[in-house]
TrEMBL record:
Keywords: Cell outer membrane, Membrane, Signal. CDD domains: SusD (cd08977). It holds the Pfam family SusD_RagB. GO terms for cellular component: cell outer membrane. Belongs to the SusD family. It is found in: Cell outer membrane. This is Tetratricopeptide (TPR) repeat protein. SUPFAM superfamilies: TPR-like.
Length: 533
Protein backbone atom coordinates (compact mmCIF):
# COMPACT_ATOMS: atom_id res chain seq x y z
CA UNK A 1 0.00 0.00 0.00
CA UNK A 2 1.34 3.44 -0.91
CA UNK A 3 2.73 5.21 2.12
CA UNK A 4 0.92 8.45 2.94
CA UNK A 5 2.93 11.26 4.43
CA UNK A 6 0.76 13.37 6.68
CA UNK A 7 2.67 16.62 7.12
CA UNK A 8 2.24 20.23 8.06
CA UNK A 9 3.00 21.04 4.45
CA UNK A 10 -0.03 19.29 3.15
CA UNK A 11 -2.62 17.64 5.36
CA UNK A 12 -3.34 20.39 7.85
CA UNK A 13 -2.91 23.04 5.21
CA UNK A 14 -4.97 21.25 2.58
CA UNK A 15 -7.85 20.82 4.97
CA UNK A 16 -7.98 24.59 5.51
CA UNK A 17 -6.63 26.10 2.32
CA UNK A 18 -9.80 26.21 0.26
CA UNK A 19 -12.49 26.45 2.90
CA UNK A 20 -10.73 29.24 4.80
CA UNK A 21 -11.25 31.63 1.92
CA UNK A 22 -14.51 30.39 0.47
CA UNK A 23 -16.46 30.19 3.71
CA UNK A 24 -15.95 33.89 4.32
CA UNK A 25 -18.46 34.75 1.60
CA UNK A 26 -20.79 31.78 1.52
CA UNK A 27 -23.78 32.03 -0.78
CA UNK A 28 -25.91 28.97 -0.11
CA UNK A 29 -23.59 26.02 -0.57
CA UNK A 30 -20.29 26.83 -2.23
CA UNK A 31 -17.89 24.21 -3.48
CA UNK A 32 -14.79 24.22 -5.63
CA UNK A 33 -17.02 23.22 -8.51
CA UNK A 34 -19.32 26.25 -8.32
CA UNK A 35 -16.83 28.88 -7.19
CA UNK A 36 -14.46 30.63 -9.65
CA UNK A 37 -17.40 31.29 -11.95
CA UNK A 38 -17.18 35.09 -12.06
CA UNK A 39 -14.53 37.74 -12.45
CA UNK A 40 -15.24 38.94 -8.92
CA UNK A 41 -14.76 35.50 -7.40
CA UNK A 42 -11.43 35.01 -9.20
CA UNK A 43 -10.28 38.50 -8.26
CA UNK A 44 -11.23 37.94 -4.62
CA UNK A 45 -9.26 34.72 -4.58
CA UNK A 46 -6.18 36.33 -6.15
CA UNK A 47 -6.47 39.19 -3.67
CA UNK A 48 -6.59 36.74 -0.78
CA UNK A 49 -3.43 35.00 -2.02
CA UNK A 50 -1.63 38.33 -2.34
CA UNK A 51 -2.73 39.33 1.15
CA UNK A 52 -1.37 36.09 2.58
CA UNK A 53 1.95 36.73 0.86
CA UNK A 54 2.35 40.30 2.08
CA UNK A 55 0.46 40.42 5.39
CA UNK A 56 1.42 44.00 6.22
CA UNK A 57 -1.35 44.12 8.83
CA UNK A 58 -0.54 40.84 10.60
CA UNK A 59 2.51 40.62 12.84
CA UNK A 60 3.10 36.98 13.74
CA UNK A 61 2.92 34.81 10.64
CA UNK A 62 5.27 36.59 8.24
CA UNK A 63 6.19 40.02 9.60
CA UNK A 64 7.88 38.68 12.72
CA UNK A 65 9.98 36.01 10.95
CA UNK A 66 11.08 38.52 8.32
CA UNK A 67 12.15 40.89 11.10
CA UNK A 68 13.90 38.00 12.85
CA UNK A 69 15.97 37.45 9.72
CA UNK A 70 17.14 41.06 9.97
CA UNK A 71 18.14 40.41 13.59
CA UNK A 72 20.33 37.54 12.38
CA UNK A 73 22.61 39.96 10.52
CA UNK A 74 25.09 42.69 11.31
CA UNK A 75 22.38 45.31 10.75
CA UNK A 76 20.14 44.65 13.76
CA UNK A 77 19.98 43.57 17.37
CA UNK A 78 16.89 41.92 18.75
CA UNK A 79 16.71 45.26 20.55
CA UNK A 80 13.94 44.80 23.12
CA UNK A 81 15.65 43.91 26.40
CA UNK A 82 12.56 44.06 28.58
CA UNK A 83 10.40 41.24 27.22
CA UNK A 84 10.51 37.57 26.31
CA UNK A 85 12.74 37.13 23.25
CA UNK A 86 12.14 33.43 22.61
CA UNK A 87 10.58 34.06 19.19
CA UNK A 88 13.68 35.86 17.89
CA UNK A 89 16.61 34.57 19.97
CA UNK A 90 17.22 31.19 18.26
CA UNK A 91 18.04 32.83 14.93
CA UNK A 92 19.51 36.08 16.21
CA UNK A 93 22.03 34.30 18.43
CA UNK A 94 22.51 31.29 16.13
CA UNK A 95 21.34 28.74 18.69
CA UNK A 96 18.49 27.53 16.47
CA UNK A 97 17.62 23.82 16.44
CA UNK A 98 14.87 21.89 14.64
CA UNK A 99 12.96 21.76 17.94
CA UNK A 100 13.62 25.38 18.88
CA UNK A 101 13.08 27.57 15.84
CA UNK A 102 11.23 30.48 17.37
CA UNK A 103 8.97 32.18 14.85
CA UNK A 104 10.76 30.61 11.87
CA UNK A 105 8.24 27.76 12.10
CA UNK A 106 5.41 30.07 11.14
CA UNK A 107 6.82 31.31 7.85
CA UNK A 108 7.52 27.73 6.75
CA UNK A 109 3.95 26.65 7.43
CA UNK A 110 2.32 29.82 6.10
CA UNK A 111 4.05 29.65 2.74
CA UNK A 112 3.04 26.06 2.09
CA UNK A 113 -0.50 26.99 3.07
CA UNK A 114 -0.41 29.69 0.40
CA UNK A 115 1.25 27.44 -2.19
CA UNK A 116 -1.50 24.85 -1.78
CA UNK A 117 -4.13 27.58 -2.09
CA UNK A 118 -2.44 28.97 -5.20
CA UNK A 119 -2.48 25.52 -6.77
CA UNK A 120 -6.20 25.17 -6.10
CA UNK A 121 -6.92 28.56 -7.61
CA UNK A 122 -4.77 28.01 -10.68
CA UNK A 123 -6.47 24.72 -11.46
CA UNK A 124 -9.96 26.11 -11.05
CA UNK A 125 -9.37 29.40 -12.82
CA UNK A 126 -7.94 27.55 -15.82
CA UNK A 127 -11.35 25.93 -16.46
CA UNK A 128 -13.51 28.86 -15.35
CA UNK A 129 -15.86 30.59 -17.84
CA UNK A 130 -13.81 33.80 -17.82
CA UNK A 131 -12.23 35.28 -20.93
CA UNK A 132 -8.59 34.47 -21.61
CA UNK A 133 -7.58 38.00 -20.68
CA UNK A 134 -9.37 37.73 -17.34
CA UNK A 135 -7.86 34.33 -16.62
CA UNK A 136 -4.40 35.62 -17.44
CA UNK A 137 -4.74 38.49 -14.96
CA UNK A 138 -5.63 36.37 -11.95
CA UNK A 139 -3.60 33.31 -12.86
CA UNK A 140 -0.56 35.52 -13.46
CA UNK A 141 -0.92 37.07 -10.02
CA UNK A 142 -1.34 33.61 -8.46
CA UNK A 143 1.78 32.30 -10.18
CA UNK A 144 3.79 35.22 -8.82
CA UNK A 145 2.53 34.53 -5.30
CA UNK A 146 3.57 30.87 -5.56
CA UNK A 147 6.98 31.88 -6.91
CA UNK A 148 7.56 34.41 -4.11
CA UNK A 149 6.70 31.81 -1.48
CA UNK A 150 9.23 29.41 -2.95
CA UNK A 151 11.81 32.20 -3.27
CA UNK A 152 11.68 32.84 0.47
CA UNK A 153 11.53 29.15 1.36
CA UNK A 154 14.59 28.18 -0.68
CA UNK A 155 16.62 31.05 0.75
CA UNK A 156 15.62 30.25 4.31
CA UNK A 157 15.65 26.45 4.27
CA UNK A 158 17.28 25.28 1.03
CA UNK A 159 15.58 22.65 -1.08
CA UNK A 160 11.95 22.06 -0.11
CA UNK A 161 9.14 19.96 -1.64
CA UNK A 162 7.93 21.40 -4.93
CA UNK A 163 4.38 20.75 -6.01
CA UNK A 164 2.27 22.56 -8.55
CA UNK A 165 -1.08 20.81 -8.20
CA UNK A 166 -3.56 20.69 -5.36
CA UNK A 167 -2.99 17.72 -3.10
CA UNK A 168 -5.37 15.40 -1.35
CA UNK A 169 -4.61 13.12 1.56
CA UNK A 170 -4.13 10.21 -0.82
CA UNK A 171 -1.06 11.55 -2.59
CA UNK A 172 0.98 13.26 0.09
CA UNK A 173 4.25 11.53 -0.70
CA UNK A 174 6.43 14.58 -0.88
CA UNK A 175 10.16 14.59 -0.36
CA UNK A 176 12.53 17.53 -0.68
CA UNK A 177 13.57 18.82 -4.07
CA UNK A 178 17.02 20.29 -4.54
CA UNK A 179 17.52 24.02 -4.29
CA UNK A 180 18.26 24.09 -8.01
CA UNK A 181 14.93 22.41 -8.72
CA UNK A 182 13.11 24.91 -6.52
CA UNK A 183 14.73 27.78 -8.40
CA UNK A 184 13.75 26.19 -11.71
CA UNK A 185 10.12 26.20 -10.60
CA UNK A 186 10.40 29.80 -9.40
CA UNK A 187 11.75 30.87 -12.78
CA UNK A 188 9.08 28.94 -14.63
CA UNK A 189 6.30 30.51 -12.57
CA UNK A 190 7.69 34.04 -12.93
CA UNK A 191 8.16 33.76 -16.70
CA UNK A 192 4.65 32.37 -17.03
CA UNK A 193 3.32 35.13 -14.75
CA UNK A 194 5.05 37.84 -16.80
CA UNK A 195 3.62 36.42 -20.02
CA UNK A 196 0.10 36.20 -18.63
CA UNK A 197 0.32 39.72 -17.20
CA UNK A 198 1.80 41.21 -20.37
CA UNK A 199 -1.40 43.01 -21.32
CA UNK A 200 -2.70 43.59 -17.80
CA UNK A 201 -2.91 47.22 -16.70
CA UNK A 202 0.01 48.48 -14.62
CA UNK A 203 -1.67 50.28 -11.73
CA UNK A 204 0.13 51.39 -8.57
CA UNK A 205 -2.48 50.00 -6.23
CA UNK A 206 -0.57 47.04 -4.86
CA UNK A 207 -1.66 44.60 -7.56
CA UNK A 208 0.98 42.30 -8.97
CA UNK A 209 2.01 43.10 -12.54
CA UNK A 210 4.54 41.89 -15.08
CA UNK A 211 7.22 44.24 -13.77
CA UNK A 212 7.10 42.59 -10.36
CA UNK A 213 7.65 39.25 -12.09
CA UNK A 214 10.62 40.56 -14.10
CA UNK A 215 12.11 42.22 -11.02
CA UNK A 216 11.88 39.04 -8.96
CA UNK A 217 13.41 37.15 -11.90
CA UNK A 218 16.33 39.59 -11.73
CA UNK A 219 16.72 38.94 -8.01
CA UNK A 220 16.59 35.14 -8.18
CA UNK A 221 18.96 35.16 -11.16
CA UNK A 222 21.44 37.20 -9.11
CA UNK A 223 21.07 34.84 -6.17
CA UNK A 224 21.97 31.90 -8.45
CA UNK A 225 24.94 33.75 -9.97
CA UNK A 226 23.22 33.75 -13.35
CA UNK A 227 24.85 37.04 -14.17
CA UNK A 228 23.67 37.41 -17.77
CA UNK A 229 20.06 36.73 -16.83
CA UNK A 230 20.28 39.06 -13.82
CA UNK A 231 21.53 41.81 -16.11
CA UNK A 232 18.85 41.14 -18.74
CA UNK A 233 15.92 41.26 -16.34
CA UNK A 234 17.12 44.17 -14.20
CA UNK A 235 17.92 46.16 -17.34
CA UNK A 236 14.46 45.40 -18.70
CA UNK A 237 12.79 46.79 -15.58
CA UNK A 238 15.06 49.87 -15.57
CA UNK A 239 14.78 50.74 -19.26
CA UNK A 240 11.27 49.57 -20.14
CA UNK A 241 9.33 49.81 -16.90
CA UNK A 242 7.35 52.87 -15.78
CA UNK A 243 9.47 53.45 -12.65
CA UNK A 244 11.79 56.27 -11.57
CA UNK A 245 14.01 56.78 -8.58
CA UNK A 246 12.47 59.01 -5.95
CA UNK A 247 14.38 62.30 -5.89
CA UNK A 248 14.19 62.25 -2.08
CA UNK A 249 15.34 58.97 -0.51
CA UNK A 250 13.18 59.58 2.58
CA UNK A 251 10.10 59.59 0.38
CA UNK A 252 10.38 55.85 -0.33
CA UNK A 253 8.95 55.00 3.12
CA UNK A 254 6.67 58.03 3.39
CA UNK A 255 3.20 57.38 4.82
CA UNK A 256 1.90 59.98 2.35
CA UNK A 257 3.58 58.40 -0.69
CA UNK A 258 2.13 54.93 -0.98
CA UNK A 259 3.00 53.15 -4.24
CA UNK A 260 5.35 55.91 -5.31
CA UNK A 261 7.24 56.20 -8.57
CA UNK A 262 10.07 53.90 -7.39
CA UNK A 263 7.90 51.14 -6.00
CA UNK A 264 7.52 47.91 -7.98
CA UNK A 265 5.65 45.99 -5.26
CA UNK A 266 4.44 47.13 -1.85
CA UNK A 267 2.44 45.53 0.92
CA UNK A 268 -0.60 47.76 1.28
CA UNK A 269 -1.90 49.37 4.46
CA UNK A 270 -4.72 51.66 5.50
CA UNK A 271 -5.71 53.76 8.50
CA UNK A 272 -9.45 53.12 8.03
CA UNK A 273 -10.66 53.34 11.61
CA UNK A 274 -13.42 50.73 11.57
CA UNK A 275 -11.11 48.01 10.19
CA UNK A 276 -7.67 46.79 11.24
CA UNK A 277 -5.86 47.25 7.93
CA UNK A 278 -2.76 49.03 9.16
CA UNK A 279 0.79 47.72 8.98
CA UNK A 280 2.12 45.75 11.95
CA UNK A 281 5.77 46.58 11.29
CA UNK A 282 5.75 50.11 12.80
CA UNK A 283 4.37 48.64 16.02
CA UNK A 284 6.60 45.54 16.10
CA UNK A 285 9.73 47.61 15.45
CA UNK A 286 8.68 50.99 16.79
CA UNK A 287 10.46 52.75 19.66
CA UNK A 288 9.56 51.20 23.00
CA UNK A 289 8.89 53.42 26.00
CA UNK A 290 7.93 56.71 24.40
CA UNK A 291 6.52 59.31 26.81
CA UNK A 292 4.49 62.43 26.04
CA UNK A 293 6.87 64.55 28.12
CA UNK A 294 9.58 63.95 25.50
CA UNK A 295 7.55 65.63 22.74
CA UNK A 296 7.19 69.43 22.47
CA UNK A 297 3.41 69.12 22.61
CA UNK A 298 3.40 67.13 25.86
CA UNK A 299 0.37 65.41 24.30
CA UNK A 300 -0.36 61.70 24.61
CA UNK A 301 -1.70 61.74 21.03
CA UNK A 302 1.90 62.02 19.84
CA UNK A 303 2.94 58.77 21.54
CA UNK A 304 3.01 55.54 19.55
CA UNK A 305 5.07 53.33 21.87
CA UNK A 306 6.08 50.33 19.78
CA UNK A 307 7.36 46.95 20.87
CA UNK A 308 11.02 47.71 20.25
CA UNK A 309 12.21 44.74 18.18
CA UNK A 310 14.87 44.91 15.43
CA UNK A 311 17.05 47.83 16.49
CA UNK A 312 19.91 49.09 14.26
CA UNK A 313 23.49 48.30 15.25
CA UNK A 314 26.26 50.85 15.63
CA UNK A 315 28.13 48.73 13.07
CA UNK A 316 25.50 49.63 10.46
CA UNK A 317 25.64 53.26 11.52
CA UNK A 318 29.43 53.21 11.09
CA UNK A 319 28.98 51.91 7.55
CA UNK A 320 27.00 55.06 6.70
CA UNK A 321 29.47 57.29 8.51
CA UNK A 322 32.38 55.79 6.58
CA UNK A 323 30.81 57.09 3.37
CA UNK A 324 29.64 60.38 4.88
CA UNK A 325 26.20 59.11 3.87
CA UNK A 326 24.06 61.52 5.87
CA UNK A 327 20.80 61.13 3.95
CA UNK A 328 20.59 57.34 4.00
CA UNK A 329 21.86 57.16 7.58
CA UNK A 330 19.24 59.55 8.91
CA UNK A 331 16.54 57.96 6.72
CA UNK A 332 17.41 54.54 8.15
CA UNK A 333 18.55 55.17 11.74
CA UNK A 334 17.40 57.56 14.44
CA UNK A 335 19.64 57.65 17.48
CA UNK A 336 18.20 58.39 20.92
CA UNK A 337 17.81 62.15 21.43
CA UNK A 338 18.30 62.92 17.74
CA UNK A 339 15.58 64.60 15.69
CA UNK A 340 13.43 62.24 13.64
CA UNK A 341 14.58 62.95 10.09
CA UNK A 342 11.89 64.81 8.19
CA UNK A 343 9.89 65.34 11.38
CA UNK A 344 12.28 67.68 13.17
CA UNK A 345 9.71 70.25 14.27
CA UNK A 346 7.26 67.88 15.98
CA UNK A 347 9.88 65.36 17.15
CA UNK A 348 13.16 67.27 17.60
CA UNK A 349 14.66 64.88 20.18
CA UNK A 350 13.21 61.43 19.72
CA UNK A 351 13.58 59.70 23.06
CA UNK A 352 12.46 56.30 24.29
CA UNK A 353 13.31 53.85 27.04
CA UNK A 354 17.03 53.06 27.00
CA UNK A 355 16.39 50.43 29.66
CA UNK A 356 14.41 48.48 27.07
CA UNK A 357 16.53 49.29 24.00
CA UNK A 358 19.84 47.56 23.33
CA UNK A 359 21.31 50.03 20.88
CA UNK A 360 19.82 53.45 21.60
CA UNK A 361 18.66 53.45 17.98
CA UNK A 362 15.48 52.77 16.06
CA UNK A 363 14.76 52.14 12.39
CA UNK A 364 13.62 55.39 10.76
CA UNK A 365 12.14 53.53 7.79
CA UNK A 366 9.46 52.09 10.08
CA UNK A 367 8.69 55.42 11.77
CA UNK A 368 5.20 56.96 11.85
CA UNK A 369 5.36 60.79 11.81
CA UNK A 370 3.71 62.78 14.57
CA UNK A 371 1.12 64.40 12.28
CA UNK A 372 -0.06 60.97 11.17
CA UNK A 373 -0.23 59.75 14.77
CA UNK A 374 -2.40 62.73 15.70
CA UNK A 375 -4.84 61.95 12.88
CA UNK A 376 -5.59 58.48 14.23
CA UNK A 377 -8.10 57.79 16.96
CA UNK A 378 -6.95 54.18 16.83
CA UNK A 379 -3.28 53.46 16.28
CA UNK A 380 -2.60 49.77 16.88
CA UNK A 381 -3.76 47.91 13.79
CA UNK A 382 -4.39 51.14 11.88
CA UNK A 383 -0.93 52.46 11.00
CA UNK A 384 -0.75 53.51 7.33
CA UNK A 385 2.78 52.54 6.32
CA UNK A 386 3.12 50.55 3.11
CA UNK A 387 6.03 48.10 3.11
CA UNK A 388 8.16 48.16 -0.08
CA UNK A 389 9.17 44.65 -1.15
CA UNK A 390 10.77 45.42 -4.51
CA UNK A 391 11.85 48.83 -5.77
CA UNK A 392 13.81 50.28 -8.65
CA UNK A 393 17.04 51.03 -6.76
CA UNK A 394 17.50 47.30 -6.19
CA UNK A 395 17.41 46.79 -9.95
CA UNK A 396 20.28 49.26 -10.43
CA UNK A 397 22.32 47.45 -7.79
CA UNK A 398 21.47 44.08 -9.33
CA UNK A 399 22.58 45.32 -12.74
CA UNK A 400 25.77 46.70 -11.19
CA UNK A 401 26.70 43.35 -9.66
CA UNK A 402 25.81 41.51 -12.86
CA UNK A 403 27.88 43.98 -14.87
CA UNK A 404 30.84 43.42 -12.56
CA UNK A 405 30.79 39.71 -13.39
CA UNK A 406 30.14 40.16 -17.11
CA UNK A 407 32.57 42.97 -17.85
CA UNK A 408 30.02 45.77 -17.96
CA UNK A 409 30.02 49.20 -16.36
CA UNK A 410 29.23 48.48 -12.70
CA UNK A 411 30.39 51.90 -11.51
CA UNK A 412 27.76 53.74 -13.52
CA UNK A 413 24.89 52.04 -11.71
CA UNK A 414 26.18 52.47 -8.17
CA UNK A 415 26.94 56.10 -8.93
CA UNK A 416 23.34 56.66 -10.02
CA UNK A 417 22.26 55.36 -6.62
CA UNK A 418 24.86 57.48 -4.82
CA UNK A 419 23.92 60.64 -6.71
CA UNK A 420 20.36 60.40 -5.43
CA UNK A 421 21.66 60.81 -1.85
CA UNK A 422 24.15 63.57 -2.73
CA UNK A 423 27.29 61.39 -2.57
CA UNK A 424 30.26 61.89 -4.85
CA UNK A 425 30.71 59.24 -7.56
CA UNK A 426 33.15 56.41 -7.07
CA UNK A 427 35.95 56.48 -9.62
CA UNK A 428 39.04 54.48 -10.41
CA UNK A 429 38.10 51.35 -8.48
CA UNK A 430 37.98 47.85 -9.92
CA UNK A 431 38.43 44.21 -8.99
CA UNK A 432 37.74 43.16 -5.39
CA UNK A 433 37.51 46.78 -4.25
CA UNK A 434 34.68 47.44 -6.68
CA UNK A 435 32.83 44.26 -5.72
CA UNK A 436 33.04 45.14 -2.04
CA UNK A 437 31.68 48.61 -2.84
CA UNK A 438 28.71 47.08 -4.66
CA UNK A 439 28.02 44.91 -1.63
CA UNK A 440 28.30 47.97 0.62
CA UNK A 441 25.92 50.03 -1.52
CA UNK A 442 23.35 47.24 -1.27
CA UNK A 443 23.67 47.32 2.51
CA UNK A 444 23.36 51.09 2.78
CA UNK A 445 20.53 51.38 0.27
CA UNK A 446 18.41 48.37 1.24
CA UNK A 447 18.90 48.09 5.02
CA UNK A 448 15.83 46.68 6.79
CA UNK A 449 14.13 45.81 3.51
CA UNK A 450 14.43 42.04 3.87
CA UNK A 451 17.57 41.31 1.85
CA UNK A 452 20.56 41.55 4.20
CA UNK A 453 20.54 37.95 5.46
CA UNK A 454 20.05 36.51 1.98
CA UNK A 455 22.78 38.81 0.65
CA UNK A 456 25.51 37.96 3.15
CA UNK A 457 24.75 34.27 2.74
CA UNK A 458 25.10 34.39 -1.06
CA UNK A 459 27.74 37.10 -1.56
CA UNK A 460 31.26 35.75 -1.95
CA UNK A 461 34.18 37.40 -0.19
CA UNK A 462 36.53 38.26 -3.08
CA UNK A 463 39.55 37.31 -0.96
CA UNK A 464 38.44 33.93 0.38
CA UNK A 465 35.70 32.97 -2.06
CA UNK A 466 33.57 32.04 0.94
CA UNK A 467 30.14 33.52 1.83
CA UNK A 468 30.47 36.99 3.34
CA UNK A 469 28.55 35.93 6.44
CA UNK A 470 31.46 33.65 7.39
CA UNK A 471 33.79 36.64 7.71
CA UNK A 472 31.24 38.54 9.81
CA UNK A 473 29.96 35.92 12.23
CA UNK A 474 31.53 33.23 14.41
CA UNK A 475 34.18 33.61 17.13
CA UNK A 476 36.62 35.37 14.79
CA UNK A 477 34.05 37.26 12.74
CA UNK A 478 34.71 40.94 12.23
CA UNK A 479 31.22 41.89 13.41
CA UNK A 480 31.54 39.77 16.55
CA UNK A 481 35.00 41.12 17.32
CA UNK A 482 33.81 44.69 16.76
CA UNK A 483 31.03 44.27 19.30
CA UNK A 484 33.29 42.62 21.86
CA UNK A 485 35.66 45.60 21.73
CA UNK A 486 33.03 48.28 21.14
CA UNK A 487 32.77 51.36 23.31
CA UNK A 488 29.39 52.43 21.99
CA UNK A 489 27.68 54.15 24.95
CA UNK A 490 24.30 52.55 24.30
CA UNK A 491 25.06 49.00 23.24
CA UNK A 492 27.71 48.33 25.88
CA UNK A 493 25.66 49.66 28.79
CA UNK A 494 22.63 47.46 28.14
CA UNK A 495 23.95 43.91 28.30
CA UNK A 496 20.60 42.20 28.74
CA UNK A 497 21.10 41.27 25.10
CA UNK A 498 24.50 39.64 24.89
CA UNK A 499 27.28 41.71 23.32
CA UNK A 500 28.74 38.64 21.57
CA UNK A 501 25.96 38.54 18.99
CA UNK A 502 26.79 36.05 16.22
CA UNK A 503 29.55 34.23 18.09
CA UNK A 504 27.67 30.92 17.83
CA UNK A 505 27.47 31.04 14.03
CA UNK A 506 28.66 27.78 12.47
CA UNK A 507 29.28 27.84 8.70
CA UNK A 508 28.79 24.09 8.53
CA UNK A 509 25.07 24.54 9.17
CA UNK A 510 23.97 28.16 9.61
CA UNK A 511 23.94 29.13 5.93
CA UNK A 512 20.38 27.76 6.13
CA UNK A 513 17.81 27.41 8.89
CA UNK A 514 16.76 23.87 9.85
CA UNK A 515 13.61 22.17 8.61
CA UNK A 516 11.06 22.08 11.47
CA UNK A 517 11.40 18.78 13.32
CA UNK A 518 7.64 18.30 13.27
CA UNK A 519 7.74 18.15 9.50
CA UNK A 520 10.42 15.49 9.55
CA UNK A 521 8.61 13.44 12.19
CA UNK A 522 5.29 13.51 10.39
CA UNK A 523 6.95 12.50 7.13
CA UNK A 524 8.26 9.30 8.68
CA UNK A 525 11.77 10.36 7.80
CA UNK A 526 11.12 11.01 4.12
CA UNK A 527 11.89 14.68 4.65
CA UNK A 528 15.61 14.94 5.45
CA UNK A 529 17.16 17.56 7.73
CA UNK A 530 19.66 20.17 6.60
CA UNK A 531 23.32 19.32 7.33
CA UNK A 532 24.61 20.02 10.82
CA UNK A 533 21.24 20.01 12.56
Amino acid sequence: MKKIIVSIIAFSLFSASCSDFIEKDQRGTQTLENYFQTVQECENYANELTQRLLLAKEWWTLTAPRVTNEMSTDDAWMGNTGQDNSAHRPCSQYIITPDNMGDMNSIYTAHFYTIQSANVGLERMAVSPLTDAQKNQYMGESLFVRAYCYYELVNLFGGVPVYTKSLGTGDLTLSRNTAAEVYTQIETDLKDAAAKLESAPVARNGRINKWAAYALLARVSLFQEKWAEAKTYSNKVITEGPFQLESDFLNIWNVNNHNGIESILEAQSSSVQDKSLGAALPTLSGARGEDKKNFPSNDAADVLDGWGWCMPTSDLENAYLSENDVIRRRSTITKWGEAAYGDETLNPTHKFSLNDNKSGRICRKYYIPIATRRSLDKKDGHLPLNIPLIRLAEMYLTRAEANYHTGGDALADINIIRARVKLDPKTGISGPTLLRQIYKERRLELAFEGLRLFDIRREKDPTTGRPVIESLMGPNGTFVQYNLSSTDPYETTNLRESQDKGINFNPAKNLLWPIPQLEIDLSGGVIKQNPGY
